[in-house]
Structure formats: structure tokens, C-alpha cells
Amino acid sequence: MKAAHAIDDDSYRAAMGRLLALYTQVDGIIMEACAARIASAPDLEAKLALAKQTGDESRHVQIQHGWMREFGTDPAPVITSEQEARIRAHFRELPWLEFLADLYLCVEALGSEAVEQVVPLADPGTRESLRIPLGDELDHVAFGVTRLKAELQRLDPETRAAFLARLPARIDALATTLHELVPGVEALFARVGADYADLCATLSQRREDLLQEVA
Ligand SMILES: [Fe+2]
Ligand SMILES: [Fe+2]
Questions:
Q1: Distance 60 CA to ligand 1 centre (A)
Q2: In whole angstroms, what is the distance from residue 51 CA to residue 58 CA?
Q3: Does the predicted TM-score (pTM) go above 0.70?
Q4: Which of 9, 32, 50, 135 has the highest CB neighbour number within 10 Å of its CB?
Q5: How many A from CA of 155 to the centre of ligand 1?
Q6: Where in the chain are the domains?
Q7: Within 42-80, where are the H helices?
């Protein structure tokens, strides 16, 4: 494994700053998507999980903003407000099962897996700023995966099989859309020292594991 970076490396700092800004922005979008879903969630357990997650994501945004200030990197958004609005609209319009699949399998599980890959390469301050957020993301993914699996088991076998058959393409389509929102994201990962091919292989393995878990 490569050594962690020192923060006096300007190219590293600028690239890590953009990745942190992106992660923070995505957390803000998730916070709003969860808050917007509380009222229509199917039962109390789901409402409580979404409300807790709304609070968790709020804390992540606050921690990351504080760290970006200290780190001295640009906190400006990486994705535009129009793109943000489109993602928010996407989550607002989804039926509950599709919401679980898109938010938890794709954004939360694969997104935080990508962040996890960067942690060993990061400077100590950045690593510390990610500690609480990444711990909470494990809870969010656990809720989403468990809940999706339980919901699927309640469906009649045919509907369930049809949902599962569509699921890989569903995850891939959203992952591609999100990836295309950030041109040059490969270069940012490369500049913080991540091997992009390794990262893709890790994400692809995680995607397989998630699909097996819910099936
Ligand atoms: Fe988060
Ligand atoms: Fe999360």
C-alpha cells in the first residue's frame, strides 16, 4: 500500500479538497432525500431510520465543512445546482423499493466504499474527518440492505424475481449517471494516490456482494 500523503503536497491537497467537497455535497443531497421521504415512509421503523439518517448526514456535512475550512481547500460545489436538483427530483419520485435500491445499494454502499478506498491514502486530518461519517454510513447501508431484503421477501415470487432481474442494470445506470456528473473524477482519485482500476475492481466486487445479499 502507498504511504499516506502529507498536506504540504499542493496537488494532493487540491484534489483531496475536491473529493471532500463532492462527498459533502452528496451527503447534503442524501440528507434532503431522507428528510423528504419521512412523511411517506411505510411504517414507524422506516420513518425513524430516515429521521436518524437525516441527522447523521447533517452532522457529516457540518464535520466536512469544518475540515475543509481548516484544510484550506475550496468548499465550492463540485456538481451544479441544476444537477443537484435533478438528483433530488429522482429520489423524490421513486417508489419505496426503488428508493431503497438507489439510495442504499448505489449511493450509500458504493459511494462510501469509494471513500473508504481513499482513507488509507489520506493525510491524518482528512482521515479523522472521515471517521465518524464512514462509521455512520455502515449503519445506513445496514438499514437499506436489510430493509430491501425484507421488502423483497414479502413480494410474490414473480414480482420479486422481476425486481431482482432488473436490479443490476438499475444500479449500473444510476452509477453511470452519477459518475458522468463529475468529469475528471478519475484524475482526482489518481492525484490522491488511488489506483483507479483497483478502485473500479473493488466497487464491482462490492456491487456483486450487495446483489447477493438482497437476493
Ligand atoms: Fe454521510
Ligand atoms: Fe449516509
A1: 5
A2: 11
A3: yes
A4: 50
A5: 30
A6: 10-214
A7: 44-71
Distance of CA 85 from the midpoint of ligand 2 (Å): 19
Find the 157 Cα to ligand 2 centroid distance in Å. 30
What's residue 4's pLDDT?
Answer: 67
CA of 26 to the centre of ligand 1 (A): 8
10-214 belongs to which homologous superfamily? Answer: Ferritin, core subunit, four-helix bundle (1.20.1260.10)
- Counting ligands in written order, the one closest to the CA of 139 is 2
Which residues crowd ion ligand 2, with CB under 5 Å?
A: 137, 140
Cβ–Cβ under 8 Å, residues 21 and 73: yes
Q: Which ligand is nearest to the CA of 33?
A: 2
- The answer to whether 97 touches 154, Cβ cutoff 8 Å, is no
Q: Which ligand is nearest to the CA of 140?
A: 2
Q: How far is CA 105 from CA 3, 86, 143, 159, 198, in A?
A: 30, 19, 11, 19, 20
pLDDT computed for residue 77 by the predictor? 93
Minimum-distance ligand to the CA of 142?
Answer: 2
pLDDT digits 0-9 by tens, 72-121: 998 899 999 999 999 999 999 999 999 999 999 999 999 999 999 999 99
Distance 104 CA to ligand 1 centre (A): 11
Task: Round to whole Å and give the CA distance between 170 and 139.
Answer: 23
143-200 residue pLDDT tens: 999 999 999 999 999 999 999 999 999 999 999 999 898 989 999 999 999 999 999 9
Ligand closest to the CA atom of residue 137: 2
CA dihedral 57, 85, 183, 177 (to 10 degrees): 90
